[in-house]
Amino acid sequence: MMIGFAHNLLRNAFSLQKGHNFSSLVWDDELAELAQRWADQCPESGHNDECRSLNKFRTVVYQNVGKKSYPGSLPGQKAAEDIPKLMSDIATEWYQQPHNPLKPDTERFETINVVGCGLTKTSRCSLRGHPLPACVDYFTIHLVCNYASKEDESKVEYDTVSF
Known about the structure:
Blueprint (H helix, E strand, L loop, with lengths): L1 H12 L12 E2 L1 H11 L22 E10 L4 H21 L6 H5 L6 E12 L10 E13 L15
Parallel strand pairs: 1-3
Antiparallel strand pairs: 2-4, 3-4
Helix pairs in contact: 1-3
């Protein structure tokens, strides 16, 4: 998936510590479904979904929410061509935000290895006497990405108990 590839590049480019090797992110359909449900609500940037945990992950599910507005509209084929760039723009803004991370917050990214994203496009109309299809002034892309750590089942170690 293109978004996973973009996240991998950005995460390595904006690495908080030199020499840090992050696991590559792999797409997860279940995380994407949760993200899409939240994106469909058109959330404001920074307003995370509180109901996003899944039992199959060993950690909490982390989330980034972003939106970007553009003048005009994205008709048909142009939308299909431009949306990957818009997704990349929003993801880049997340990684470039000024921050002063606490140690636990930065350490969690070492173990994150799955991602799932959802995207919704909304339009705002200014009627001005025009029929609805002709009144679009700008559109907004809402992008939500969920991140988690998934165990490599071939490496899971079990404690033994003696009876």
